[in-house]
Design a protein that fits this description.
Two copies of one chain form a homodimer.
Chain A lengths: L2 E9 L5 E6 L2 E6 L8 E12 L1 E6 L20 H15 L3 H14 L2 E9 L7 H13 L4 E7 L10 H10 L4 E5 L8 H15 L3 E5 L3 H18 L5 E5 L8 H14 L2 E4 L10 H6 L4 E3 L16 H11 L5 H9 L3 H7 L14 E4 L4 H7 L5 E4 L2 E5 L4
Helix pairs in contact in A: 2-3, 4-5, 5-6, 6-7, 9-10, 9-12
Chain lengths: 393, 393
Amino acid sequence: MSALLLRDVRPLGGAATDILLHEGRIAAIGPSLSAADAAIEESGGAIALPGLVEGHTHLDKTAWHLPEWYANSVGPRLEDRIENERSWRAATGHDAAEASLALARAFLAAGTTRIRSHVDIDTDAGLSHLHGVLRTREAMAPAQDIQIVAFPQSGLLIRPGTEALLDAALAEGADVVGGLDPCGIDRDPVGHLNAIFALAQKHAKPIDIHLHEPGEMGAFSLALILDRIAAVGMQGRVVVSHAFCLGMIGERERDALLARMAALGVAIATTAPASRPVPPVAACRAAGVTIFGGNDGIRDTWTPYGTPDMLERAMHIGLRNNFRRDDEIAIALDCVTNAAAQGCGFGEYGLTPGSRGDVVLVAARSVAEAVVAHPARKLVVAKGRVVTRNGVR
Amino acid sequence: MSALLLRDVRPLGGAATDILLHEGRIAAIGPSLSAADAAIEESGGAIALPGLVEGHTHLDKTAWHLPEWYANSVGPRLEDRIENERSWRAATGHDAAEASLALARAFLAAGTTRIRSHVDIDTDAGLSHLHGVLRTREAMAPAQDIQIVAFPQSGLLIRPGTEALLDAALAEGADVVGGLDPCGIDRDPVGHLNAIFALAQKHAKPIDIHLHEPGEMGAFSLALILDRIAAVGMQGRVVVSHAFCLGMIGERERDALLARMAALGVAIATTAPASRPVPPVAACRAAGVTIFGGNDGIRDTWTPYGTPDMLERAMHIGLRNNFRRDDEIAIALDCVTNAAAQGCGFGEYGLTPGSRGDVVLVAARSVAEAVVAHPARKLVVAKGRVVTRNGVR
């Protein structure tokens, strides 16, 4: 049976209606639908959301799957955390395939059907993380799409051999070229951008660059990135992740950068951390910049926090941006649905006929409640098939 | 039967042991305890925590108990929110007894056995909120202690008649004198402090003052409060709630204020909001200042966020303070256990023989996991009796 009828759902909290899925897609949305051979799910007025989108995570790093709690005693600097992770992996024989599969399944159980995952490529791990996440991608393909960013976590120019590994990763199936702090880590911003834009052009792939750099340094790197996009014609093909600098510089300078980003179609991925300045979601959207959400790492050597639940991430986005009104919380939800699909380039997206059959049902009175309470999903439908019910596969 | 034996628990994540409760208190902690007539709970190595403490909430304001979702469309200013709440109450006939009872029960189900609640006293509501929360306090007394702060939410001097109402509230059973933004709301800091310190002296009650005022204005008000404490000898009797200014001024000025606060025994209540500057927990503790946690309002006209789960609040404190290491997350837990009991003056507290028999069991591998995952409580024991099991009464 390939048809599925979701009866009595409220798309995005609106009026009750039905959704018919057929051959992996949304076939129709409307009241009192019927289909002779469809399986029927009575939904009891649950809110229907499109499949949730994780726009920035690191599936390969997680300790989510391990029986033992990872006890964190790492130092405070970025360099401490990078080094701690490398030594932990070496000591434990970390298996990126097993790790990423456990986390991807947990994401799916909570209704996330599309994921952009950065995957570490470095001279210690080589392509082993890529190979692990490629296996997970294949295993999850019947229900979930995973985009892979080839990510030079340990630095690119400062660690010779990394550039060739990124090149190989892109040849072997990575979807996106990653970058990292051109000034702060690689200490040579022009050299860093030369490398990643050359890889992007060679493989005809988009770019997603981690930019943690604070204040004026970050704004400088960001401006260099924008100059380069204009110079090589990569409009609409670049995401800047974090972009903390946009929460630290003056509003006039920030808005000038946002205007350039909007004109060049550059999107922002934000994890909305509580302890750091962030790009303000409202200002980004007002400027016409697509901004979307992600967890960053989940339960790994970097952080004990994070959950594979994008409604909870929407709550954090709401909290960080002081979104209190229902219309504001709808924006937080947009950051993990439509805006994320647009920013990452996931197609056939949304609660519309013809879109892929990814529907998430949440028992809540309003979209705002779905976000702030983020109860276990009542039903998750992926590519037209029920994959989890009340949080259970 | 008045004895209860919790077998195979791990106090604060330590080695497995037993806890014996008798006549409402912890009678003994040690391996292989026995008691002839005790009810026995096999705990399976769950982590045992002392009863959790909510150090700053507003039980009377919540919409937690209502069948309909409260759809928020309020404006951005503090004055907008105060006025919106007053008009919502007038329109709906808000019942503070029913509201506070529902929320207090939910707190208890998640292991919170002590609560400090601010309760609105104003010229519209009169003492009706106080009377409602007094009823809830009485109903919950067999399992939970509720401290009531008589709180002039709508202003004190700017709303004549409020001071007399606060006086009456303290005579009728409020435990603590509340205050609010001496400059920012009442526009007369010395006059405001004259009023609240006079009430405190008259009724021999401590003070808990909301201080939202930013930057230098907040630091000015805080210094006036400290001067007054020294002048009238109220050392160890005052809490400053929020104290956002301590996250906004220079570190040298901040540390000078913290040193004075430590010397005067002034504690800080923090809700650790993601969207505002906050007093840094580590700096406060390093200075010797007790800092503890609370939700602030929960699902009310001010905010759709918050849950009656103090382990989740500890997570937010950890996130806001960038606590990643296990030893740091233990500090976040301390903010909703020992530090909160000390800051609010709840006695007979802790996992020690002789303390009140409030024990919370959490199925987690470590204290850090109990905080970041905050699963439904396995068992809640209050005053020696089991009150909830797996989150259910």
